[in-house]
Amino acid sequence: MNSVVVLIIGFFVFFIGYRYYAKYIDAKIIKSDPKRTTPAKMYMDGVEFMPTSKNILFGYQFKSIAGAAPVIGPILAIQWGWLPALLWLLLGAFFIGWVHDYSSAVVAMRNEGASFGGLSYKLISPRARIILLCFVYFFLLLIAGAFGAVVVNAAIDQKSSPVAWLFFTIGGVLAGQMIYRWKKDIILATVVTVAISLFGIWLGSVAPSNNILGEGIANSRLVWAIAALIFCYFAAVLPIWRFALPINYVTSYIVFLGLLLGIIGVFVLHPNFTLPAYTSFDIKIGPLWPIMFVTIGCGAVSGWHSIVSSSGTARQLEYETDARPVGGGVMFVEMMLGVFALVIAGTIYASSSEYTAAIAKGPIDIFASGVGKFLGAVGVPDAFGRAYGSVMLIVLAVTILQLVIRFMRVATSEMLGDISPIFKNVHIGTIIASLLTLALILTGWWQYLWILFGGANQLMASMALMLMTAWLMSQGKPYGWTFYPMIFMFFTTTTALIVTSYRLFKQVCSGAVKGEALVGNILMILVGIFLVIAAIILAVEGIKAFSRYRALRTQPAAAVA
After folding, report:
1. What share of the chain is helix, strand, coil (3-state, %, to 5)?
2. What pTM was computed for the model?
3. Mapped to the 3 state alphabet, what secondary structure does 135-169 carry?
4. 149-197, pLDDT tens digit by residue?
5. At what angle do helices 352-361 and 363-376 cross, to 10 degrees?
6. Dihedrals φ, ψ of 279, to 5°?
7. Which residues have a Cβ under 8 Å from the Cβ of 543 and sit 6 or more positions away?
8. Which of 197, 313, 336, 385 is most exposed by smallest CB count within 10 Å?
9. Residue pair 113/41 in contact by the 8 Å Cβ criterion
10. Taking Cα atoms as reference points, which of 368, 372, 370 lies closest to residue 275?
């Protein structure tokens, strides 16, 4: 199969899904109304709630949901063959991914910007709220530890990235100042601040961190972990327009530009896939179903997106009609990023053995090499191209990290705010989240929990779809478009967690692992059991809520009155 054909198929799915399916749902079922007041306008405080142009919010949403996962997932999943991975990216995004992201934003927007805690209390039950908040907090901590480690590893392994990180932070803060304080034209602000970020990438390629800071600091995990969490602290406590929103907006152009030039490079080189279309149903990672469906999360469907859409995006939508391009459209763009990563992994190696040797070193280097190759096809120097690829990854990872810390601060307030008012303080909640994340990064425990991340992520997606289905039922709207994806995601992810826990249990019983690895495996088994039990309890609560809503719909009008 030629890579150009794969990209054209991806664009076709993008067009049909967004232009017809998403438009039908938005107009006929949700019936979005540009005249209805959104929470962003109703509760505008400049911190959490703020009406934002869909052009800016599009970039914010993309950078908020597209972490390193849509790159890493497909590169790993190609071990089953590129065809199963491609089909899941395309069909998952078409039938589940955009539905999940869009509906999460819509339901939160129609409920005054409520988070999942408030939505679950209102739509499901008080018990569901407690369990879901605990699940969400643990899930966020897992993401923080994992992506925090990605940021630290990228800063150490790719010495060009720290300087670029500094410059895109400066560019983002300047963009916020120019747009929201100085009231400058958005095009001017964009050109200036993106140029600053691109200059930072070039400067990093000629002045790597070890030349500036010395080998000791440049290779220190503690230094870069603290630097990342200081960055996240400002993102969590400052008004959204001052730091998180403009940085996400500016860096989205870095990713968009890399994706665009990379795709053009694919068309120029038009390489064929050198890796097999299909290898085997059961490989070392696990069986194709259900494990591949949780290995590829972002790009097809991801529970993380629902947290961004509900707790962040829904509070910034200026008009209801912006939900389709921001919620649905961005998901299809992320799908194309996943397809691009799949093309890289499937075409830049001459054989499966070369790919196997490369994947042993990690998917980050594979992506950076691929970006360098395809950018080189459009005249970009190899050193700059590789630096650009590594910066794309650190941009994707650090964006997720800073939002996770912000959402963990909100979750801390919801869970513990009733116990003591101190937990409602933004600084206290942020510091607690940062210290827990630092512990995971420095101890390395995230490496063990990361194996369960895919299952936890997709399980979060099924829980989000359950809330969306309950809301649609309560409103008397057709709900099959969220209900059936919820069923598929729930059974797939719980099965994946059970399979993973069982395999780990067999390793422990066989005595194949010892020492720290033994403790890590036992920890993963316990976490897997917790996730499955929490999911089952939430599913039972959801079934009860569904039954109530169905009973109300079947009652005569007089009886309801």
Report:
1. 80, 0, 20
2. 0.87
3. HHHHHHHHHHHHHHHHHHHHHHHCCCHHHHHHHHH
4. 888 888 888 788 889 889 999 999 999 999 989 989 989 999 999 999 9
5. 120
6. -110, -65
7. none
8. 336
9. no
10. 370
